[in-house]
Amino acid sequence: MELPPLLRRNVDRALNGVGLADLAVAAAALSQRYRDEHRDHNLHVRTERDALAYLAVRLPATYAAVRASFAAVVAARLDFAPKTVLDVGAGPGTALWAAADCWPGLADALLLEASPIFRACGEELAREADLPRVSWQLADVAAATIDCAPRDLVSLAYVLNELAPAARESVLQRLWDATADTLVIVEPGTPAGWERILAARRQLIEAGAHVLAPCPHAFACPLQAPDWCHFAERVARSRLHRLAKGADVPWEDEKFSYVAVSRRPAAAAVARVIARPRKGSGRITLKLCQPDGSAGEDLFSRRNGTVFKRAWRSDWESAIDLETP
Ligand SMILES: C[S@@+](CC[C@H](N)C(=O)[O-])C[C@H]1O[C@@H](n2cnc3c(N)ncnc32)[C@H](O)[C@@H]1O
């Protein structure tokens, strides 16, 4: 997945003239903090250099994950046309760009962010962009109430892992209270990220939420550790991105876990492909999460007729109707 052309241009403009050596050091330190899930009451992005490193090496990947999670909401709820959005832990405004790409009717965005550096960076990126009306709230979501009327779409992307475990439940409750329709939570696609998504999913179902995606049911997750539910998006790396990471290939796979819940149910629950399909000659094996709450591998061959064609066209993350002949 590529960034929208204007966002790509604005990111390149922000990075113009930044020394590669500096960027590589900041990017490596940032990646290490994220990998370690380092929590020391400090924000990971504390300097302008950290924010620029984030733009260079993390934004393309988090954008891809959030955009894919929103796409699953579009598929589950064709009637959903949000006008207002609240994004918490907005960083440089990643989810706003993804939401605007998915739902052109968005009119008003509130971005809550604790880091003034990220906020400045996000404002700069959005300059001259055809985005909804944007306002920023500089606040710590773990400490403050969210000061707005409920919004159609609420998102929390790559933030839960930065919150102290004891703060997560109350933050999620605040987010749900601020949700008029749909709430989307995205985390890194690691076993720990999946555990946080599972806990959020349980809490929100207990609060009355309907699960839109990726699960086609509200039963307990059928996967057992060491397995975990995650997806992957292939992300294009710019030249600077590659150089800052010392990488050879012009792409990377961003693994992510997510849950999208709503105050309204999905139109229909169909199976979800939860691993990369394995194709052979005239046959395909899909690992599926099913509407009855089970999960496992299924083999499809030409004998399955139309369902085989649908299976053949599916990919990791696809929702697939196996019932309609
Ligand atoms: C990994 S970044 C993700 C940024 C953006 N959502 C994205 O997906 O690219 C995490 C963001 O959450 C913000 N954050 C962390 N703790 C926060 C808190 N308690 N209140 C508000 N924002 C917070 C950080 O400053 C940072 O911008």
Task: Give a verbal description of the structure.
The structure is a single chain. With 325 residues, the protein is α/β, with parallel strands linked by helices. Helix content is 37%, strand content 24%. The protein is built from ten helices and 13 strands. Strands 1, 2, 3, 4, 5, 6, 7 and 8 form an eight-stranded mixed β-sheet that branches. Strands 9, 10, 11, 12 and 13 form a five-stranded antiparallel β-sheet that branches. Helix 5 links the parallel strand 1 (84-88) and strand 2. Helix 2 packs across helix 3 (48-57) and helix 4 (59-76) packs parallel to helix 5. The chain is globular and about 60 Å long. The model has no long low-confidence stretch (mean pLDDT 92).
- Structural class of the helices, strands and pairings? alpha/beta
Shape: globular
Give every kind of bound small molecule, once each.
S-adenosylmethionine
Q: Please report the distance between the alpha carbons of the first and last residues.
A: 32 Å
- Please indicate the percent range of residues in DSSP E strands (runs of 2 or more): 15-25%
Order of helices and strands: HHHHEHEHEEHEHEEHEEEEEHE
Number of helices: 10
What's the average pLDDT?
92
Based on CA atoms alone, the radius of gyration comes out at 20 Å
